[in-house]
From TrEMBL:
GO cellular component: cell outer membrane
Signal peptide: 1-18
Gene source species: Rudanella paleaurantiibacter
Pfam families reported for this sequence: SusD-like_3, SusD_RagB
Subcellular compartments: Cell outer membrane
Lineage, broadest ranks: Bacteria, Pseudomonadati, Bacteroidota, Cytophagia, Cytophagales
CDD domains named in the record: SusD
Keywords noted in UniProt: Cell outer membrane, Membrane, Signal
Record protein name field: RagB/SusD family nutrient uptake outer membrane protein
Membrane as UniProt keyword: yes
SUPFAM superfamilies, A to Z: TPR-like
Membership in a protein family: Belongs to the SusD family.
Residue ranges constituting the SusD-like N-terminal domain according to the UniProt record: 89-219
Top-rank taxon: Bacteria
């Protein structure tokens, strides 16, 4: 554990000095800086907090762990790689568990160091006008990450001062009760709400981003009154709206930080695929779209159960999924020494499950591929700029459609159904964009369905299943076909201990307290 989240936290001051390119996350090298000689103006402080948005610290979560936990576990994706998530046979040695745990606590380490540093600078006479918003920004990110941790592992460590922990020499930190981890996350978000500005440059969090995330946390706790209040504040602010180009939110760098985005991991296209770029492209891309510019090995594909979930006429199916007949005339991939393939693609890409694979056909296990976060075959072939695994699309973690559906569910408030005009208006705004007829009455299952298709392949549906409680979650999981076109697979092994992921095995070896029952954080 010392080398994972504690040690990462101690390294945070050095790591956040690395430089990124372009937009608001650009920052100068701060080598050799100290609290005394730096952080003397808003530019220097914001250069530091920009690290919290970058793909660098988020890398090991958003690359594969987000897919495995949020969508494979939930039955939205099929994979031959993360089969333990597909089959609920996850062990504490899982690579995805270790990767996401390490990423989350590294980000917390960054946030902790910034909060402490800026508070010390302020106490020494630094300008509150630029330090207070930076502290609030850091607390937003820390609250967001603890919200993910609480939903993923349930009980978990809470760390606020890794330096003090390191000096004490006692790394055997216990797990704290999930309700306390959620309370800690909420307190961070409440502080962020007070300290953040009403507006900022695109991509930076604001007071309304804090309100939006609080609404989601309250909903998870079934605190419907507060979820409704916070969602309503976001809606009434007029700061966000649904965008017409649904697919573009995930596939076009020009749409980064659009009017629907509330919080996104910030990416830039670069020649270093392990730098600040988005590397979801190859894991989702259809193999037929692999070119000299873009990798595509279709590690994750839509599940058959997910395909069945779409209503007839739902535009989100085409916006999210490639199936037989799906086309993009702008994409014209070509390959060296592949005349049949080149001829088939000459007039634009067509997803075809009858064509031979070597001649441009697609034959994934579910005869479908994912559109979201696939930027295309490369700029030379009519797509977005792509270099191997790397594209420049942001990864969206919270968007306005979520707030509308949270609002509708908060008004429903656990009732059997509602015809409340405000709830219907919120949900039907989302349905209208998808080309669907409005609902005149809604149930919890209606909202859960809407959330599943709206946020498919965005890493969120597992948490929607989980918050239904074990009995409902078990019923949902056991109804899902998790197989392929060659054979259906239904699970019968879903037990209550699978509602949360195990703590990484390596952490427990170094900190045996993590293997014990959780304890209260608040006395």
């Amino acid at each position: 554990m010392k080398r994972n989240f504690i040690y990462a936290a101690l390294l945070a001051p050095a790591l956040l000095l690395a430089s990124c390119k372009e937009s608001f996350i650009e920052r100068p090298s701060l080598s050799g800086t100290t609290t005394g000689n730096y952080y003397n103006n808003a530019e220097e402080v914001r250069a530091a907090t920009s690290t919290l948005y970058s793909g660098l610290p988020w890398r090991n979560y958003e690359s594969r762990a987000q897919d495995a936990i949020g969508d494979v576990l939930a039955g939205n994706m099929f994979t031959y790689t993360d089969t333990e998530y597909l089959n609920f046979t996850i062990s504490a040695a899982s690579e995805r568990i270790g990767a996401s745990w390490g990423a989350f606590y590294k980000i917390i380490g960054y946030a902790n160091v910034m909060i402490k540093t800026f508070e010390e600078k302020k106490a020494a006479g630094g300008g509150a006008a630029y330090l207070d918003p930076a502290i609030a920004e850091s607390r937003f990110i820390r609250g967001l990450v603890y919200f993910y941790i609480a939903r993923t592992w349930g009980a978990a460590p809470i760390i606020t001062d890794p330096g003090a922990t390191a000096l004490s020499g006692d790394f055997n930190i216990p797990r704290y009760l999930q309700k306390d981890v959620l309370r800690f996350a909420l307190e961070d978000l409440q502080a962020a709400e007070k300290g953040l500005p009403e507006s900022d440059v695109p991509g930076r969090v604001t007071k309304y981003a804090a309100k939006a995330l609080m609404a989601k946390l309250y909903l998870y706790q079934k605190d419907y009154a507060n979820a409704r209040t916070k969602a309503e504040e976001v809606i009434n602010s007029g700061k966000y709206t649904l965008v017409s180009d649904y697919t573009g939110m995930f596939t076009k760098a020009s749409m980064n930080n659009n009017a629907e985005s509330i919080f996104s991991i910030q990416h830039q296209f670069s020649q270093d695929p392990w730098g600040t770029g988005n590397i979801k492209n190859p894991d989702r891309g259809a193999g037929a779209l692999r070119t000299s510019e873009a990798d595509a090995w279709e590690m994750y594909v839509p599940s058959l159960d997910m395909l069945k979930e779409y209503e007839f006429g739902d535009l989100r199916r085409r916006w999210s999924v490639m199936e037989h007949g799906w086309t993009n005339p702008s994409w014209k991939p070509q390959r060296a020494n592949a005349p049949k393939y080149n001829e088939f693609m000459a007039n634009g890409f067509r997803y075809d499950t009858l064509q031979p694979v070597e001649a441009g056909g697609s034959l994934s296990p579910t005869r479908s591929n994912i559109v979201k976060y696939f930027a295309g075959p490369g700029k030379s072939f009519g797509g977005e700029p792509v270099l191997g695994q790397n594209s420049g699309n942001n990864v969206v973690l919270l968007r306005y459609a979520d707030i509308l559906l949270i609002y509708a569910e908060a008004i429903l408030a656990g009732q059997a159904s509602t015809s409340d005009a405000k709830a219907l208006d919120a949900l039907n705004q989302v349905r209208k964009r998808a080309g669907l007829n409005p609902k005149t009455s809604i149930t919890n299952d209606d909202i859960l369905h809407e959330r599943r298709v709206e946020f498919a392949f965005e890493g969120d549906y597992w948490y929607d299943i989980q918050r239904q409680g074990f009995a409902k979650a078990k019923a949902i999981i056991e109804k899902q076909n998790r197989g392929t076109v060659t054979g259906a697979v239904y699970l019968t092994n879903f037990t209550e201990d699978k509602m949360y992921l195990p703590i990484p095995a390596g952490e427990i070896v170094q900190a045996p307290a993590l293997g014990k029952d959780p304890v209260p954080y608040y006395k």
